[in-house]
Amino acid sequence: MDIKRRIVLVEDLRKFKTKRNLEQAFIKLLKTKDFAKITIGDICKVAFTSRSTFYLHYLDKFDLLEKVFNKQVEDFELIVKKRLKSLMTLNWKMSIEQFYAELIAHKESILVLFQINVPQYNLQNEFKRVIESYLRAYFTQHELSLEVDVDLATQIAAGVIFEILNWTFEHGIDNRALKFAEKMRVVLIED
Q1: Which of 25, 29, 78, 121 is least enclosed, having the fewest CB within 10 Å?
Q2: What GO annotations for molecular function exist for this entry (predicted)?
């Protein structure tokens, strides 16, 4: 490996670590402080970096929020895409446990982002929208004979999936809740 390539790799690694530190500091602050009250100075202090370094990576705290928010949505969408078929054909208990296992690495970030009260960055609504989008496509593609309109079935199923995931985040795996969710799936798409 030539010297120029090594320098580029080191610079890329430093940029990656700096952005990661700023994002982690932001999440840490969101645990104890309302988004509106967090300043760039607060973020830099917790991340052990300067304001000028912050501005090399982000325009402002809204830009940072947008990047963190979009990353969580992208990751969630990949998991939903990967897990949806098993969610609809297997039992929800196993599927929710698999969802949970994949999301647990992001639990801290997700829970604090759920609390942010900025309309265009409502992570709960965005997660529900992602689930609804994939469910609607699944229901339509598989031409399921649903007892109700596909939009209503989609909203109900997405609501159950989201609330069970949310419950699991807050309380851990709850077998009674998962059994209940499985009964809902059976009633919704198998009766």
Answers
A1: 78
A2: DNA binding
At residue 86's C-alpha, the angle toward residues 181 and 156, to 5°, is 40
∠ CA 70-74-80, rounded to 5°: 140
| Three-state DSSP state, 12 | helix
What CATH code is carried by the domain that includes residue 7? 1.10.10
Share of the chain above pLDDT 70, in %: 85
Report the candidate in 7, 79, 20 with the shortest Cα–Cα distance to residue 49. 20
Question: Which single residue is written with the structure tokens 């990353």?
Answer: 71
Asked if 9 and 79 sit in the same domain, the reply is no
Return the residue matching tokens 């496509």. Answer: 137
Residue 28: pLDDT band (50, 70, 90) is very high
Burial class (CB in 10 A: 0-12, 13-18, 19+), 23: buried
Q: How far is the C-alpha of 72 from the C-alpha of 30, rounded, in Å?
A: 15
d(CA 146, CA 153): 7
pTM: 0.82
**Number of domains the chain contains:** 2
| Residue 78 sits in the same domain as residue 132 | yes
Residue 145's domain is classified under what CATH number? Answer: 1.10.357
